[in-house]
Amino acid sequence: MKPYSGACDQNRDPILSVLEQLLSDASTVLEVGTGTGQHAVYFAEKLPHLTWQCSDQVQYHEGIQAWLDEAELSNVLPPIALNVSEDKWPETRYDALYSANVMHIMHWENVVDLFVSGAKCIKENGLMICYGPFNYDGQYTSQSNANFDQSLKMRDPDSGIRNFEDLQKLANENGLKFLHDIEMPANNRTLVWRRAASTT
Questions:
Q1: CATH code for residues 6-195
Q2: 16 in Cβ contact with 30 (< 8 Å)
Q3: Which of 41, 147, 163 is nearest to 103 (CA)?
């Protein structure tokens, strides 16, 4: 049986509308934290000009592959093993890195590794696109986000909604220039950075 996330169905069209604009000139995307595989097959079908590379920890691969097998799309690739802090990152450079609802599940050191290694996987002038709930100046943007953060920390004290300012610092340290903070439904945001062109 394929894994299923109701949240993926609920947020896919708002995210698609953003990706259509951001990735109109792109050809390759690395998705970090593919999860069930629902986003991968939906976006690959709706954006056929993209080659979509799935990645996640190995225990999720069977479920992802079940979605890929059913969709039979030529532009979505089988998942590669990627624990951001443990596995070797791909040597391929992508036009964009996409990640949805991942950073609040990770420990902070994993978030750091996502930016450090992820930036190296993006081509010059390529994009890092991150969707999910974020805090600003240490403050929740809604009571529902505060409740969600508490539930995350009950399961894992090292997880939780991340502060935009902390992520922006990581981005700056890794050659990523802030582009957009896009308001999304259900108190989520899409944050976008562009990898700076080399000056050497």
A1: 3.40.50.150
A2: no
A3: 163
Intra-chain end-to-end CA distance of the chain, in Å? 51
Are 102 and 33 in contact by the 8 Å Cβ rule? The answer is: yes
Q: Provide φ and ψ at 175, rounded to 5°.
A: 75, 25
Three-class SS of residue 70? helix
Q: What phi, psi does 105 have (nearest 5°)?
A: -90, -30
Closest-CA residue to 184 (of 68, 14, 3): 14
Q: Token pair of 187, please?
A: 């108190």
Helix (H) and strand (E) counts in the chain: 6, 9
11, 101, 127 from 161: Cα distances, Å: 18, 10, 22
| Percent of the chain that is helix, strand, coil (3-state, to 5) | 40, 30, 35
- CA geometry: angle at 129 spanning 58 and 163, to 5°? 95
How confident is the model over 75-129, as pLDDT tens digits?
Answer: 999 999 999 999 999 999 999 999 999 999 999 999 999 999 999 999 999 999 9
Tokens of 58: 């190995």
Beta bridge partners of 178: 193
